[in-house]
Amino acid sequence: MIRVTLTAVIVAVVGVLFARALVRNWDALADLDLRPDAWIAGSVLLFASAVVVSGILWGRMVAHLGEIRVGLLESVRVHCLSWLLKYIPGQVGSVANKLAWAGSRNVSRSLTTLSFFYENAFLIIGSIIPPGLILLMLGSVELGEGGVVVVTAASVVPLLLLTSRPILRWGTNHVARRVFKREVPQAYFLGSAQALKYQLQYLVPRVVNGAGAVLIAISMFDVPVSDYIPLACAYIFAGAAGLLAVFVPSGVGVRESVFVLLSVAYLPVEQAIVLALAARLFATLGDGVVAVIYGLLTFTSRKTGVS
Predict the structure, then answer these.
(1) For residues 91 and 95, what is the distance between their CA atoms, to the nearest angstrom?
(2) What predicted TM-score, i.e. pTM, was given to this entire model?
(3) What distance in Å separates the CA atoms of residue 41 and residue 273, rounded to the nearest whole number?
(4) How far apart are CA 235 and CA 278, in angstroms?
(5) At 237, which helix (H) or strand (E)?
(6) pLDDT tens-digit profile of 255-286?
(7) Can you give the pLDDT at residue 49?
(8) Alpha carbon distance 131, 23 (integer Å)
(9) Closest by alpha carbon to 67, among 8, 28, 107?
(10) Where are the domains of the chain?
């Protein structure tokens, strides 16, 4: 009841705020050219390809930690379905799908759960630290004197915790011993160098997503080249806010609000609103492409007898 209520309240509040902003800026919006073109098509493909890249990275991580073979197409197929299930609040559907796959492949559920944690941690940290620092250095966000230094130092903390196998293993096993009466094998935890490697690799899908947002902006507005990077960073950073809003299906409204807040330094408010809504629309179309990819891979795997 709490989850459903919070979801309804957040979506309703964001909807009202966006509706009021649209009404206030309707005259300016009426003059915009919103027709799809090659830039829009490219953005949809980029949004979908970011999911594919994340699936490949997840499969490699599971294969590495579990010392098992996970096919490239298999990892993409499983990850695509988990991505489509993100519309269930709390990512319950996403993790349940990967756990179900683990059961069918006789893969450790502890390993699969840890891989899900690593994946989301890498995506969130990669969405906050690099773009956040870039936006701070560009002056898009004001944190007072010395803000860049403070935020940079604070950002290192979660990264160090994540890449420290002893600390993460201690925390995980503290819970595992109490709940499951057993420990998680040390081999299921990434070492510091390995975690840093995956963290860097998980920046790739984030950059691809940011590029997709920039293509939409190019299609709709006369955006200077100098604004490409900050707009991409604003979209990536807003994506982290959407991931952290676990009570909201796919971060609906939360991501758009944060993106508008960060992008008004480079776009008029009405254009920032339109770009936020358009990015949501075309990202959803990208999810449609992901669904097609999942369908094709599922059909192929059934024909070849691959689980």
Answers:
(1) 6
(2) 0.80
(3) 20
(4) 12
(5) helix 228-244
(6) 888 888 888 889 988 888 889 888 888 888 88
(7) 96
(8) 31
(9) 107
(10) 2-21+37-140+204-304
